């Protein structure tokens, strides 16, 4: 075999490898439904601090609220 034949054979082999190794992507749906379990505990604490002056104003003007 001369060099041209060897290069041709190598080129064909390279093309064959490239074509044979093309990646494939498959998308399949699961056979069972997806279940998401969330255990969430929500706690909140509201603190209201009223200064004495504001408290006195509210008591004096109790008819506003």
Walk me through the structure.
This protein has helices at residues 3-20, 52-60. With 65 residues, the protein is mainly α. The chain has a domain at 1-25. InterPro entries: YnbE (IPR025985). This is YnbE family lipoprotein. Pfam families: Lipoprotein_19 (PF13617). Keywords: Lipoprotein.
The overall pLDDT, averaged over residues, is 78
Low-confidence residue ranges:
none
C-alpha Rg, in Å? 39 Å
Give the N-terminus to C-terminus distance in angstroms: 105 Å
Strand content: under 5%
| Biggest beta sheet attributes | none
Q: So what's the overall shape?
A: rod-shaped
Task: Give the helix proportion (percent range).
Answer: 40-55%
What is the H-and-E element order? HH
What is the total tally of β strands? 0
Enumerate how many helices there are, as a single number.
2
Instruction: Please identify the structural class as seen in this structure.
Output: mainly alpha
Features:
65 residues; 2 helices; mainly alpha; single chain
Task: Provide a brief overview of the structure.
The chain has 65 residues and is mostly helical.
Task: List strands and helices in order, with pairings.
Elements: H1 3-20, H2 52-60
